[in-house]
Design brief:
With 147 residues, this protein is α/β, with parallel strands linked by helices. The protein is built from five helices and five strands; from the N terminus they run H-E-E-H-H-E-H-E-E-H. The protein has helices at 5-18, 42-45, 52-64, 82-91, 132-146, and strands spanning 25-30, 33-39, 72-78, 95-100, 125-128. A five-stranded mixed beta sheet has the order 2-1-3-4-5. Helix 1 (5-18) runs parallel beside helix 5. The model has no long low-confidence stretch (mean pLDDT 96).
Length: 147
């Protein structure tokens, strides 16, 4: 059996956790082909913008040579924050799939609901809850180990 896009994102989230980063992973696919992947790298890079989604978007743009990712889909293990939702909109990603909701920092189905705002110029199709339990448990375990 081949790995699904969200399973790949979860594997990247695990890699992030092992490196001491918050366990979030992201992959970007175009026509069933992986074009970019990333995990959180904020601590490693000393960069508060190095969320998995942001790094994956940067890598996808570099790989495609295009500033717009209109025919691409992003899979991420945690509901994106406002910064990442803004980048998703500006990159014009076609679809966003996410695993676990983020009640505190999420900005898609929680918080500011960025894509529903009248000032948002592009809203991707959003599908949440894929592998939600697995992603949420990984995050719970990570933060329990830090307390």
């Amino acid at each position: 059996m081949t790995e699904t896009p969200m399973q790949r994102a979860l594997a990247l989230a695990q890699k992030a956790a092992e490196a001491g980063e918050v366990p979030v992973g992201a992959v970007i696919f175009r026509d069933g082909e992986l074009i970019a992947e990333a995990e959180n790298e904020m601590r490693r890079l000393g960069d508060p913008t190095a969320h998995a989604e942001m790094v994956a978007i940067r890598r996808a743009i570099a790989a495609t040579g295009q500033e717009r990712l209109t025919d691409c889909d992003l899979y991420v293990t945690l509901e994106p924050c406002t910064m990442c939702a803004g980048a998703i909109a500006h990159a014009r990603l076609r679809r966003l799939y996410y695993a676990a909701e983020d009640l505190k920092g999420g900005a898609v189905d929680n918080g500011v609901r960025f894509f529903a705002q009248p000032t948002c110029h592009h809203a991707p199709e959003v599908i949440g809850g894929i592998e939600e339990n697995r992603a949420a448990e990984m995050l719970r375990q990570f933060f329990l180990s830090r307390r």
